[in-house]
Amino acid sequence: MAVIALVSAKGSPGVTTAALAAALSWHRRLVLAECDPAGGSVLAGYLGGALDGPRGLGELAVGELRDGNLESAFWSQLVDLDAPKRERLLLPGVVDPAQAGSVTPLWQRFADFFTGLEKGVPPYDVLVDCGRLQVGGPPWPVLRAAAVVLLVTRAHLPDLSATRATIKAIERDFAEHRVPPGTLRLLVVGDGHGTSEISKALRLPVIARLPHDPRTAAVLGRGGTVRANRPLLRAASQLEVPVRALLDRRRARLAWPGAPVPRPVTAPSTPGVSGAV
Ligand SMILES: Nc1ncnc2c1ncn2[C@@H]1O[C@H](COP(=O)(O)OP(=O)(O)O)[C@@H](O)[C@H]1O
Ligand SMILES: [Mg+2]
Question: What is the pTM of this model?
Fold first, then answer.
């Protein structure tokens, strides 16, 4: 399918939780890449830090800067999210934010590499946790290269006003860098204002809404067994449907500008998830 980036304006609306919940229920081969410059958390949290040595984006960056070996080193830096299948893999983020310095000059390189993974044999989708934008050194090249950018927000006024400012910043940047329009969508987490109200106020479609589910979020943050029937997991497992529909429509439009647009796919009814794209 493609590179799908998740990012927030500021605060902690649940980007990592949403990305991990979606990754665990993704139906295609997938790499979850933690590109939050503030550091990754899935390895130490959900996976309980059970590894024999340092692994992930930081190691990859050091190797690439030293030897230019991203292609050959990439797969050995991944961790299984569903061992032993190797179908859903994690690229752990930097552990120490100080490591982010070696990663920052490589965002474009990583963006290009991630984009190539969908054309690999076998192909992999890449879900990228880009953290929050209002910090130094966000992975802009990854956001620009992504086929879909999900701006994650809570549904209360302070979050929405920060998100509104971030939409403007992203749209400005994308226009400057000639990113084809239509990649940005909102992913709303939890209770608060209504979905259509948010979409109207922020002038951006809401692709889906994830429910407030603190029990599941806690397991995803600290480790343990997640049950697929939990509300958050059920909703996250449906995210792929509107994302795919959006991609299909954009690709059809780019390939045949005058051609009829495929009809949107409606997600099977799952509590907390809107089928809107
Ligand atoms: N859908 C949710 N329901 C309830 N709590 C959530 C949900 N998503 C995230 N949280 C909680 O919010 C906090 C921040 O989540 P996290 O995913 O780390 O945010 P971010 O990556 O945006 O900083 C964590 O305590 C997490 O358990
Ligand atoms: Mg996070």
Answer: 0.91
- The predicted pLDDT at position 173 comes to 97
Distance of CA 84 to the CA centre of its chain: 23
Judge whether 268 lies within some domain. no
CATH number of residue 116's parent domain: 3.40.50.300
User: Given the structure tokens 């497992």, which residue do they identify?
Assistant: 237
- Regions of the chain where pLDDT drops below 50: 261, 264-277
Q: How far apart are CA 88 and CA 80, in angstroms?
A: 6
11 CA from centroid of ligand 1 (Å): 10
> Is the CB–ligand 1 distance for residue 8 below 6 Å?
yes
Q: Domain tally for the chain?
A: 1
Question: Which residues hold their Cβ within 5 A of ligand 2, which is an ion?
Answer: 15-16
Q: Ligand 2 center to residue 254 CA distance, Å?
A: 32
The alpha carbon of 36 and the centre of ligand 2 are apart by a number of angstroms equal to: 7
Position 96 scores a pLDDT of 77
Q: How many CA atoms lie within 13 A of 222 on its CB side?
A: 6
CB neighbourhood size of 260 (10 A): 7
